[in-house]
Amino acid sequence: MLKVISNIIVLSLSITLFSGCRTKSTLKDVQTETGISFPDKWISLAHDQVEAHPIGWLSDINDSYLTALVTEAIEKNRDIKAAASRVNSAIAQAKIEGASLKPNLSLESGASKTKRTSSSGFALSNVRSNNYNFGLFTNWEIDLWGRLRNQVDASYNDLNAATMDKKSVSLSVAGNVAKSWYGLIESKLQVNLSRKTVKSFENSLISIEQGFRTGINSALDVRLARANIFVAKNRLYEALRAFQNQKRTLEILLGRYPRGELETRNSFPELKRRIPVGLPMDLLMRRPDLIAGHQRLAANDYRWQDKKRNWLPSLALTGNGGTSSSKFKNLMNSNFGVWNIAAVIMQPLYNSGRLSAERAMALANKDKSLADFSQLILRALKEVEIGITNEDLLFNQEIALKSAKDESVIAETIARERYQKGLENITTLLEARRRSFEARNNFLTVKSRRIQNRIDLYLALGGDFGIEGKQDRNKKSPTEIK
């Protein structure tokens, strides 16, 4: 019996030699596949040569508190946990598909009792018999046309796509945490500015009402002063609403809602580093969502290759060996051994158009994946170009608005001094204060937008300005923790 069993195992193992090795998909032929011509360099890059900093983008911003928040989000965010579960599911599916390339081996044992009644003339006789069996059973489908291999390769590409999806979610969460954090800082600064403005207008109203009672100011001056207070209060309430919304958004990203215990800073970080000249297109190709899209395209191509051959015959080998006896004590006796080896060829003949429909659906899915991937490439190119263009424009806006803010503050001081000396009317002072508030408000907004745009550019490039492979491996960003 042991000899028969060993023969079955050898047969099964020898069949596995028919299976090849899984080929790896790359991004080398992306331009050929999509028909998109990539530029040699980014069109909008027009400032002086700056050395690239091959470190994580969080280090580029240089905000230790933000780094701690991102680390917390990577560990606790529900979207990342869901993406990790999808990776585990893809791993299991790849194992399921991979099992088709290997023989199935099962152990069989059983016992049965049979009674037969027969007649001979006027006599009836009952025959009782027992049967005991023990053995191994194997079956295997030979991958003649590479269909099973295509299915396995497709599952591995799906696994790679799920892994890249998780990295993409992690990168997105890190970016959203950073943007929400600086949005929260902007909202707090706007709240502080609005409160100071309301207080300033209220103090002016007291002075104007005193002047009205003594005949110095008119009723129009009083009405204008009161109107300015209500406008300033409206902006304060708007800033408070934005502050609370930003806080809740950030808490959800951190997985700690609704505790409301976030501490907020009162200043923005300074973006001292400029974008390096000559950022290569290779940076774009490291984006995890682009890699995932390419992996899905490869998976659907493998499935198309599989379905193109679904009309071809299949070959399956089966074998079993063991012992069978009417007595239980003979089960381990090789003299009672039985074995069987068979080959079965099946050729589809008629299936009501199901196989042709499967081929049509596989081709449609492949075409859709190509269109989706091409659109993803174009969107990524647009995001990078917009980010680079906005970087310079927002930098120039920040300089202009800082000058406007400084001039408006000085103008407000001059108007107040001239009003106190009786050289200007109250309308001029109120207008100067309104302009000063607008200038400071706009300056805060553009500083926030510039930081938000820098973060968007990091996300569009899939990371910092360094080329992957040349980065300092001792410095990992929180997005690389899991």
What is the compact description of this entry?
This protein has helices spanning 2-15, 30-34, 57-61, 64-76, 78-98, 147-213, 219-254, 288-308, 354-420, 426-461; strands at residues 104-120, 123-142, 314-325, 337-346.
Descriptive overview:
This protein is of the alpha+beta class and 482 residues long. It has one domain (35-105, 150-311, 360-480): Outer membrane efflux proteins (OEP) (Up-down Bundle). 59% of the residues lie in helices and 12% in strands. The protein contains 10 helices and 4 strands; from the N terminus they run αααααββαααββαα. The protein has helices spanning 2-15, 30-34, 57-61, 64-76, 78-98, 147-213, 219-254, 288-308, 354-420, 426-461, and strands spanning 104-120, 123-142, 314-325, 337-346. A 4-stranded antiparallel β-sheet has the order 1-2-3-4. A hairpin with a 2-residue loop joins β1 (104-120) and β2 (123-142). It is elongated and about 135 Å long. Residues 1-27, 43-55 and 467-482 have low confidence and may be disordered.
How many strand segments? 4
- Topology as H/E string? HHHHHEEHHHEEHH
CATH superfamily: Outer membrane efflux proteins (OEP)
Overall pLDDT score: 79
Percent of residues in helices? 55-70%
Tally of separate domains: 1
Total helix count?
10
Integer-rounded radius of gyration: 37 Å
For the terminal residues, how far apart are their CA atoms? 51 Å
Principal-axis shape: elongated
| Strand percent estimate | 5-15%
CATH topology: Outer membrane efflux proteins (OEP)
The side-by-side strand order for the widest beta sheet comes to 1-2-3-4
Q: Sketch the major β-sheet.
A: 4 strands, antiparallel
Structural class: alpha+beta
Any idea of the CATH class?
Mainly Alpha
Low-confidence stretches: 1-27, 43-55, 467-482
